[in-house]
């Protein structure tokens, strides 16, 4: 007779209970491991002085423990990965960039004050007039280091020292004592090529002179006393022994400043308030190029949308023509540029527009006797960008217009034909008005995309030709995004603070366009 667990008085699903229990404990163990790993990251970033990253992972670990530790928040577990990813990869970079914009963070002000102080205190200099010429002599399978010349004291103008036999295969840093020598070791010194081969050994040696300073390698031919250049004072200043001057920390600029006003690099980041933002609009060397690039960015994005829409709309209208044969072939050929990766097309166009060997100038020179300077003339460079970007963007507009045109009822065109309307009348009075409302949010999205079209500028012109008189790297074809990139990574000073300020302004502009897009998307068609 067949019996069930219930008929025998046993709990239901008892056979599955151990599996569920093990699964639950495995999940808890995994969560604990993740939280421990995040706490380890918090500690590591905190010890390295990166408090913002430490705070990020602290918040992430705490929220993870709370969401997955309480049953009341079970419904939030499914959306937590998406929120955590948005926080780590979107919100935190925005806040970090916004924070940097209020500092002088740059390649000259990169380390913390403690690390700057430690780096300066680790610097050494060679004492003048105390260098020893050296030579290497073979001693069986080892070598001896022989030093001669120099002056450790005024009364000792000619001193000779020799080391014990050294193993060339052991380049580990170590201290070696010197012995006074009356004459040179027997044999000929090793040639320079063997001295160069033994450089790892020599650079790791610290030679201890009897009743004298320690010596280290100062070149391929000499050892010299290397003395600590800076001496720390109780008031936080540093004394420069080599140049006999005092360095005082200036916490408003983030540099150690010498008596004569010289700033000693590297420095450390300090808060500068709104200086980076005011510099954009008040410094003539930055304001002029910034405004020029600002206007060109809007013009580039607007003209690109206008040209791509015009080409895409006209082609989409022609493809709806009933008398046109082979529509499928034409559609495939016209959409092909959309299938080719953009960077490949850009590089191909860069070769075609080459001023000396490009196919476009070759054709123009043979037909009209002209050879335009596409990459050196600002107007031609901007025209080239618009031509290439129109080629890259019209297939997208073509697909949008084709889909919207097909949604228009055919009865409207039949009624227009009865009233004597032609193709142009249908396009201006029926097609275009009906597709513009649903197309407007997509046009704003295309405008925002081209507003930050970094790839095109970086691969085709690199921002060139440059704007003369600019104190920062700025070109006539730069967009705001490429201008920001050049300030942050191509400028000699790498002014990350100024670049972050410009990036914040770009973000605000894009947010404004996104809000406009959302507002227009709610309009009923």
TrEMBL record:
PROSITE patterns: ABC_TM1 (PS50928). It comes from the Bacteria. Residues 294-517 form the ABC transmembrane type-1 domain. Keywords: Cell inner membrane, Cell membrane, Membrane, Sugar transport, Transmembrane, Transmembrane helix, Transport. The keyword Transmembrane applies. It is a multi-pass membrane protein. It is found in: Cell inner membrane; Cell membrane. CDD domains: TM_PBP2. SUPFAM superfamilies: MalF N-terminal region-like (SSF160964), MetI-like (SSF161098). The chain crosses the membrane at residues 25-45, 51-68, 80-102, 293-316, 328-349, 384-405, 439-460, 496-518. Part of the ABC transporter complex MalEFGK involved in maltose/maltodextrin import. Probably responsible for the translocation of the substrate across the membrane. The complex is composed of two ATP-binding proteins (MalK), two transmembrane proteins (MalG and MalF) and a solute-binding protein (MalE). PANTHER family: MALTOSE/MALTODEXTRIN TRANSPORT SYSTEM PERMEASE PROTEIN MALF (PTHR47314), MALTOSE_MALTODEXTRIN TRANSPORT SYSTEM PERMEASE PROTEIN MALF (PTHR47314:SF1). Belongs to the binding-protein-dependent transport system permease family. MalFG subfamily. This is Maltose/maltodextrin transport system permease protein. The gene is malF.
């Amino acid at each position: 007779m067949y019996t069930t667990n219930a008929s025998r008085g046993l709990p239901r699903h008892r056979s599955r209970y151990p599996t569920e229990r093990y699964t639950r404990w495995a999940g808890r163990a995994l969560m604990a491991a993740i939280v421990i790993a995040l706490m380890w990251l918090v500690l590591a970033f905190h010890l390295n002085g990166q408090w913002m990253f430490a705070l990020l992972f602290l918040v992430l670990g705490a929220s993870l423990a709370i969401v997955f530790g309480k049953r009341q928040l079970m419904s939030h577990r499914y959306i937590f990965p998406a929120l955590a990813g948005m926080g780590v990869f979107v919100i935190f970079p925005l806040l970090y960039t916004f924070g940097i914009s209020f500092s002088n963070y740059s390649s000259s002000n990169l380390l913390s004050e403690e690390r700057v102080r430690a780096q300066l205190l680790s610097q050494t200099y060679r004492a003048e007039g105390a260098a020893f010429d050296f030579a290497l002599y073979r001693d069986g399978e080892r070598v001896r280091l022989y030093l001669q010349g120099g002056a450790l004291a005024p009364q000792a103008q000619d001193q000779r020292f020799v080391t014990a036999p050294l193993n060339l295969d052991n380049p580990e840093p170590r201290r070696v004592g010197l012995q006074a020598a009356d004459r040179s070791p027997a044999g000929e010194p090793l040639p320079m090529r063997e001295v160069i081969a033994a450089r790892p050994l020599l650079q790791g040696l610290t030679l201890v002179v009897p009743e004298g300073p320690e010596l280290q390698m100062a070149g391929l031919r000499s050892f010299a006393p290397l003395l600590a250049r800076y001496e720390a004072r109780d008031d936080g200043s540093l004394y420069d022994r080599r140049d006999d001057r005092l360095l005082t920390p200036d916490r408003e600029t983030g540099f150690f400043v010498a008596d004569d006003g010289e700033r000693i690099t590297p420095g450390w980041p300090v808060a500068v308030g709104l200086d980076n933002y005011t510099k954009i609009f008040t410094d003539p060397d930055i304001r002029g190029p910034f405004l020029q690039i600002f206007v060109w960015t809007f013009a580039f994005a607007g003209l690109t949308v206008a040209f791509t829409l015009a080409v895409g709309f006209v082609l989409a209208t022609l493809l709806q023509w009933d008398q046109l044969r082979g529509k499928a072939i034409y559609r495939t050929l016209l959409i092909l540029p959309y299938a080719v990766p953009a960077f490949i097309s850009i590089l191909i166009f860069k070769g075609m527009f080459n001023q000396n060997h490009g196919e476009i100038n070759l054709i123009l020179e043979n037909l009209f006797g002209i050879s335009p300077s596409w990459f050196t003339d600002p107007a031609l460079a901007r025209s080239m960008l618009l031509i290439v970007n129109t080629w890259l963007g019209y297939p997208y507009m073509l697909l949008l217009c084709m889909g919207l045109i097909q949604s228009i009822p055919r009865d409207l065109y039949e009624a227009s034909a009865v009233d004597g309307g032609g193709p142009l009348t249908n396009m201006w009075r029926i097609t275009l008005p009906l597709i513009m409302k649903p197309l407007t949010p997509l046009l704003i999205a295309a405008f925002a995309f081209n507003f930050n079209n970094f790839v095109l500028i970086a691969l085709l012109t690199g921002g060139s030709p440059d704007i003369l008189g600019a104190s920062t790297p700025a070109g006539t074809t730069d967009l705001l995004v490429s201008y920001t990139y050049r300030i942050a990574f191509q400028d000699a000073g790498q002014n990350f603070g100024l670049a972050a300020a410009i990036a914040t302004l770009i973000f605000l502009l894009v947010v404004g366009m996104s809000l406009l897009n959302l507002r227009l998307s709610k309009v009923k068609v």
